[in-house]
Amino acid sequence: MSQQEPTPPSADTENNATQQPGHEVETMPSLEELLKEAERQAREHYDAWMYAKAEAENIRRRAHEDTDKARKFALEKFSGELLAVKDSLEAALGVETSDIASYKNGVELTHKQLASVFEKFSIAEVHPLGEKFDPHKHQAISMVEAEAEPNTVVQVLQKGYTLHERVLRPALVMVAKPKN
User: Which residue of 17, 34, 84, 101 sits 20 to 30 Å from the alpha carbon of 3, by its own alpha carbon?
Assistant: First the structure.
């Protein structure tokens, strides 16, 4: 009698052997399927990352362009208003009759136009005569003996200006000395 080696049961036989009516067998996904799924998810994540990276770069570029435009054209409205003042000055210079009164009237009207433009854009004069010296708004040229309280502005040599309460140019002043 020859002995036959037992044959190992096939996968089908094992599945059939463990499968009973009414019970389903849980099958584990193969390594290839798991790898394909992981690669698909990695591709999705990479694509989403690249999209977010491109979007961030576009936002940065647009913000840079917007700030450049804002810097370049920040004075556009103000400049447009000043053109009217320049036109008035040129008209005054082009007057044929050189009578002092007409020049004075022209200069006064132009001054009013300029003051109107300053007011419209919140540019205010700093004229601190009689006020306490403030180094944030005033620049002292010298100290002089005066009847006023010490550190009080007694003379304004040049007006200062503020833009929305921020100093554009400090007022040049002379300040009262403390009495000895």
Answer: 17
